[in-house]
Queue: 2 jobs
Job 1
Amino acid sequence: MIKKLKIKFICITMSFITIMLVVILGLVTFFTSKNLEIENIQMMKGIASNPMLLNSPSAPPNHVRLPYFCLHFDHKGNLKNTSGGYYDLSDENFIEDLLKKTSSTSEIGVIKDYSLRYYHFPTPKSNVIIYSDISSEISTINNLYKSCAFIGIISFISFLAISIILAKWAINPVDIAWKKQKQFIQDASHELKTPLTVIHTNAELLQDTNYNQDSKKQFADNILTMTHKMKNLVSGLLELTKIENGFIKSTMTEVDFSSLVKKCTYPFEPILFENNKPLVTNIEDNIHVTGNSEYLQQVIDILLDNASKYSLAGNDIPLTLKKNGKQCLFSITSTGTPLTKEECTNIFERFYQTNEARNKDNSYGLGLAIAKDIIKEHNGKIWCESFDNKNVFYILLNM
């Protein structure tokens, strides 16, 4: 699909460029040809308006730039004399053939066989036909055609190369989104497959009369556990969809972020204290941000939950919130197995879980992905750093 989209993009782009090149080069050729023709006709009319030039063209003024000659006729149409210093007018066959090809009904015309343009000019005593050499005009136009063709081919090839690069650049986000969508479907299918298999197996065992009531109760508990997991998975996927559809931005208000973070810590403090992982907070007051309080609370809960799961007993969990210029910086630290640089990036991707996470709980790896999307919708930044056996999660928001 992506390949077809790139080809379609290139074809559409090159169609417009080709049309533009043809139109531009065609107009250049047309107007150049017309200008040369008009200049030549104006020159002949200038000659016709000056009787001295009709009889003595051997020393033309500056505005006469092309060779020309004149044929003079009486009122009966008989050739009286010729004038011109550029052509051999003693050749009667040439004159006779020239007159045959000169239209008597057209004031101005072109004789291609001799590369001449003629202009009929009646005078009080006679009729005059002025012939002007247009071989240089024809040569100029032919050279212009060749130049335009060369420029057109070079331009077409250049624009084609640029279009290919632009197509790759323009389609790249679509390509990434398409790959992520395929990966998302594969991961979701994989994650759903296991609980569905467990539910199906335990449901079949429930119908087996060979098992006692205690065993059947265990099968029912297994089904309930897997159903709960699937419910959490589907809820997480729906939450991600809602976030991506721009629901958060339409519900943003001013939020007292300091109070919100304090509120989030209250449920966790006794649990962490009992597990010998005391929560140590340092929260500045009067920090306000623009956002959705419900979703911001969800992000803090996700980070607190992760810290409580993966921090080793006997270590504090420092949580800070402070002003950072026109922004505020939130951080929470857990002491435990350090994450690699690659893991610090990947843990925010959907369904990604470290080996430790898989062993610790039965989550699907959607929590941090949801947190990332929520903070992104708030025009903020969330990231993780790992050092000295400590994993620190940061959130940066505009105040």
Job 2
Amino acid sequence: MSRWGVVLAGGVGARFWPLSTPERPKQLLPLVTDKPLLRDAIDRLGPIVDPSHTLILTNASLVKSIRALLPPIPRENIIAEPRPAGTAAALTWAALTIERRDGKEATMISVHADWAIDDDAAFREVLLNGEELARKTHTLVTVGVVPTRADQGFGYIQPSDPEKKSGSAVKRFVEKPDKGRAEKLRAEGYLWNSGIFIWTVGDFLAQVKQHGRELSKALDLARDAEASEFFAAVAKPLSVDTAVLERSKNVMVLPGDFGWDDIGTWAALGRVRPKDEFGNATSGTVHMLDCCDNVVNADRGSVVMYGVDNLVVVAHDGVTLVTTRERAGDLKRLVESLPPTERQPR
């Protein structure tokens, strides 16, 4: 048995402005620990996946930075996506790459570079259990995280048997719900759609061929194609959930409970960073009085706050961002509204 890890590390992380930039997006920032998120992801997989069997898919502009950050990863394993084409195309190209190098029986474990995990050992145990399930059943396995709250920012998965801890068939996928429905889904045993996938390369490519019609033209030339040709032939960008998993009857979900969180906005850091007795998560020199549940990131200088709650404050290179935790997910709209001279910190 041969095992490969695939880490999706594309995107620009606009929701972490002004700290993130196109040259240094969130996956290259130390947002949860003192290491960049991508380094955390690679270190987390390290005990079960060799660096020579680790693929990283990213933006062409980030290849040099990632190579410097992760010298054990071979250069040919850092794959530049010629254009954003969604996770369906990215994972299909990764599967084809593994198949060419190692055959269709190789196992592929796919994760994202921008997560926080509380219990790395439990995370790896679930991945290995998922691998065993995928090989035994020849299904596409996704890990559904046991919800800790009714979160509107995540998709949900309904297992056919919520009580079966060893995994069961997926009954249906649900897109991001409103607050009331999220509470109902959690109560009914739905799981968060984490984006953790495990399968053999052959089983996955067979399902892509059967269901991923938007990828059919790319698949026709894939065995001999370069990445640029493959991605150019993708009909339209789609997630692997939409293009393959939601159309397939050959998908199983395995419950996972290891302190997973998606680091999608500044507000998310309030859940994963250490907090003071009043719920404030801070980094840098910060002075507070009568303040609760704030997220503060100060690169240099000091931030002083008095009598305010539920704010996000980021001070970086002459720019100070102030918003609410509730509105922190909407920063892309804010950045697009700024004059070009103000979009990049000085």
